[in-house]
Amino acid sequence: MLMSATSKSLGFLFITVVTILGLLGQNLPCVQSSPHRILLDTDVDTDDLFALLYLLKLNKSEFDLVGITLSANAWTNAGHGVNQMYDLLHMMGRDDIPVGVGGEGGILADGTILSNVGGYFPIIEQEMTTTGGCRYRQAIPKGLGGILDIDSNYGFRKQFLPQGNRRYTPLRQPTAQKVIADKISEAPTTVILLGSHTNFALFLMSNPHLKHNIQHIYVMGGGVRSQNPTGCYPSNATAAEFQPPQCGNRGNLFKDYTSNPYAEFNIFADPFAAYQVFHSGVPMTLVPLDATNTIPINKKFFETFEKNQRTYEAQYIFLSLKITRDTWFDDEFYNSYFMWDSFTAGVAVSIMRNSRNKNNKNGENDFAEMEYMNITIVTSNKPYGKSDGSNPFFDKRKSPKFNLTVGGVHSGHVQTGLRDPVCIPKSGKGKCKDGYTQEISGPYSVRVLVATRAKPNRNVKSKLDREFYVDFLEVLNRPEETGRFNFSSQFPYYKEELFRPDLSKTRLGKPVVFDMDMSPGDFLSLFYLLKVPVEKIDLKAIIVSPTGWANAATIDVVYDLLHMMGRDDIPVGLGDMFPLNYSDAIFPSVGDCKYIKAIPQGCGGFLDSDTLYGLARDLPRSPRRYTAENSVAHGAPRDTDQSELRQPLALEVWQNLTKSGSGAEITVLTNGPLTNLAKFISSDKNSSSVIKEVYIVGGHINHEKSDKGNIFTVPSNAYAEFNMFLDPLAAKTVLESGLDITLIPLTTQRKLSSFKTILNRLYSSAKTPEARFVKQLVTTLQALHQNHKRYTHMDMFLGEILGAVFVGGDHASLKPKLRAELIKVAAEGDESKDGQILMDKLHGKQIKILERVDLRGCYESFASRLDDKKQSAVIGSFEEQRKNWSTPPS
């Protein structure tokens, strides 16, 4: 066939172009025509952040992170976790990635899973609300080295991460289930699970028709053949010198090895959920402790990392890693802290990158050796089919939940807590196996691709002896896909300053200590106290109680409010994490949630309190914040770099105040559980002598059966009030102490619960920044109260301002009426009675009870104080700060 000259020219051109592209392609990374879509589920632990930033650094045309969901039943609390995620994504310029957390759905008694189940509890404990127990989560410390440090990322979250426009907002926050469903529905997606499996198991159980769009599941968790190196004998130690409590265990539950030495945290957080994921039929790769134990953060890696921080993301990770090392509980950090989640991300990415090779059936990758194993997840303990009250799937049911098999693998004893007597033998290690990724054969096993160990560095001359060490540092320090700025560098004229009033020439009023649990009503009260003239009230200290309506890391909101009002001089002390006598006897950093489980985890509960109903980020950012910095002088294993910044404890603040030598007696106002005050008077013999009077907002005095308390989540306890119920022994200790106590009970508070009245007064003025913020908060509470069933209790927070108004207000306008009563407090360990205040004319202790105030006078006092331009805000909002830091100083 003859060709024209034009055709010959075009043919030659085509061959030339193809040849050139082929030659160039030899030196270009192979990028698929469409990227690998990745959905990440994370519990926002520190090592999760390492994995997330690693994924965000990858070429988006090759690996596209399309969504993030938060595990809210393990190492983080939902409100703190979601805002930290928004800030980190903002730093990386990825505000486009949806973040899902929580949800108000439930599971019916017949096993029907409703939409948007929040994942706040393991599936075995999930019912129709967001209140529930903590049989697994109680293994995680609540304070130092635990949830407090994860919620705040040891204090570096607020110091380093920029604040963007995205935030948690009530009823507008995307739920975990919605984000998963949306992203899996769009296109085939790979899933990486770095926390508990609750969210994804619920999705799989509810949406079996979407399984075909799940390409692969990568899991960090479990221990198959692992042997825990933590606690093993150092090479130079003798058996007499060293006790190996965890050495050789399959798992890593460092606070629970006495009852369960087999489980790893991510799987233990919800064993039944993990079982559902593993047995779903979706292809799966597991990166267990077997592999991660072979890639520790060793000293050479740490020192190399310290010298290679060329991006904001590398700096953030190193700061996080360094404070973790500096606050580690012993001297074995380099042998005990591993690249759990970041290594999993690296292995997953390398396998996906090699997936273009269709013969890569054995998970070939650059970083880990792989092996297929037959495994399952242990969800209950033998003997199966024996009911002992530990297993809600079977106990007291005509038919098992989810149609589970009677006498099957799910029907045995389920671990009930840290000190489950069934799990603790008289001698030897614990015998419960809940959450164990057990290697078995037979029909109940699943064939899973498992990473067994980290590959050594191919460059034998390198200081870094693992291949992934090199890749991790290289990826983090790439100039591509890098973070744009940190908190200070996002503003060209950023200036950190503290505001402390000069009161040296002022005759100060009565010294007051405010004890708060950080409910919205407490913040309204704090605004009021800061507006009362210092000549009348000298607010000496604020004590924060994490045993009430907000989690410990919410202390940062207190610091921000004080900064706004120009009172960075007021010390803030952090109270105990557990009610009196409810921390674990062996490991005091963990404990049960017997009373605090009555507070919802989701809407109207911790999720909202921890974010101040979405409004905390409107407050100006204070240089003061919670930090894990610590010193040997205060019991830490070593001094950190900035130990002078350490967060003072409540008892320290109290003792510093009482030993100051001023001689003035102190007035105490409590707006939460009485944990802190009970500890003060129990541990400090001088406390009673320096306390002039105590005003307690809380308790319920019922005169007839129809006069109920407010524990709306515990129907069996009809007559208690939350502040008493959340720590009944503390309430008993304080109310029966003989101190001069005035109780402001629930009945009196309820008279001050009109949103309309207080808003009418605020709308007529609101001339100061603090008045405008309070109006916005109250308006938000009112709207939620009117529009959603989860918020029907919002009005109870309004009455909490009564204590502050009574202590700092004009009694002539308040017209208070008080009466004396002899009372006692029920604190016998019975949830149906604990926290109730009973009249006892024979053996009771006398207290005063505020029976009535003039409501109009109270509303007027509150609103007029807020609108007074004296002692007004020094900096009105974060937006004002943003403008100041973006404008050249005049």
UniProtKB/TrEMBL annotation:
Belongs to the IUNH family. Gene3D superfamilies: Ribonucleoside hydrolase-like. It comes from Cardamine amara subsp. amara. Keywords: Hydrolase, Signal. Pfam families: IU_nuc_hydro. Residues 38-381, 512-856 form the Inosine/uridine-preferring nucleoside hydrolase domain. This is Nucleoside hydrolase 3. InterPro entries: Inosine/uridine_hydrolase_dom (IPR001910), Ribo_hydro-like (IPR036452). One of its GO terms (molecular function) is hydrolase activity, hydrolyzing N-glycosyl compounds. Residues 1-33 form the signal peptide.
